[in-house]
């Protein structure tokens, strides 16, 4: 085997130098069935496989004849540096991440290390990111359909993020009624963060807001617990848990957590999905942007001040003022009415 130093010298004869490659492989939540074909192929293709022991074990059948580097938790930058060195020496390196490598994973640190080392996308060393199902996808699938409306992810880890930044984001999304997936909710040493998150959420959401705590989704010790916001912090939560907090419309039925898409605003769900009066199939809601602008103009004409309207609609005064300053425009007729629903 050539050492990295000797292989580095091959750079003098570029035609002969085999191009190395770094692959950031998201392997999904942790079962072989939920890994993509490309993820498996990337690992099979690699000369060197780097990752936490738990994930390496999952792909044990693919590792024959490969160099395997088992790393611990806090060595992320190390891992990226090591990967770059090996790739410069012509090797294909797979860095394994759980879930998706771009979600609280190695993708960011790897680009940072590469840029610092003078790497650009034209470099002979290629970088491929292989997407995987993130914990929020996996956990959502297990508990029902909690993410069918606007949602966001917040990590409660303050190892690299100041607490006021995390707290401000919690406060903002709680106010804005997002469904939230909390990553890194609690560890042996970080036990207070989830209590603080609960405190911030309770300022904006009902105490009985549905919450699901999913531990080790699609792994051997998988455990799911349904609770409510006011009891959330008492649950058994650990490093391998993701906490899903519903929005104001999320409900639990037959042991499943569901966030409505909003069909009930437009269609009469109990009457064979007939379109509600005043609504049109394929068109924005009557309370969508254009309909709402008309309402706003009417309210202003009735004598409401901009400040009144801002309070009424819970929006900034400047926004209401700017919006009223522009006339409502109908979309040109004949535009495609099909809106994708995925
Ligand atoms: N890149 C990963 C996230 C890494 S951060 C992804 O995309 O999923 C680590 C956090 O992810 C954990 O603290 C936990 O909140 C969540 N997580 C990862 N795997 C999980 C699983 N199988 N079940 C539940 N939560 C998981």
Question: Can you walk through the features of this model?
Answer:
- There is one protein chain.
- The longest helix is centred in the first third of the chain and has 13 residues, at 76-88.
- By secondary structure, this protein is α/β, with parallel strands linked by helices.
- The protein has three domains: 19-133, 3-Layer(aba) Sandwich (Cobalt-precorrin-4 Transmethylase, domain 1), CATH 3.40.1010.10; 136-258, Tetrapyrrole methylase, C-terminal domain (Methyltransferase, Cobalt-precorrin-4 Transmethylase, Domain 2); 265-325, no CATH class.
- The two termini are 49 Å apart.
- It contains twelve helices and 15 strands.
- The strands form four sheets. A five-stranded parallel beta sheet has the order 3-2-4-1-5. Strands 7-8-11-9-10 form a five-stranded mixed beta sheet, with helices on both faces. Strands 6-13-12 form a three-stranded mixed beta sheet.
- Bound molecules: S-adenosyl-L-homocysteine.
- S-adenosyl-L-homocysteine binds next to helix 6 and strand 11.
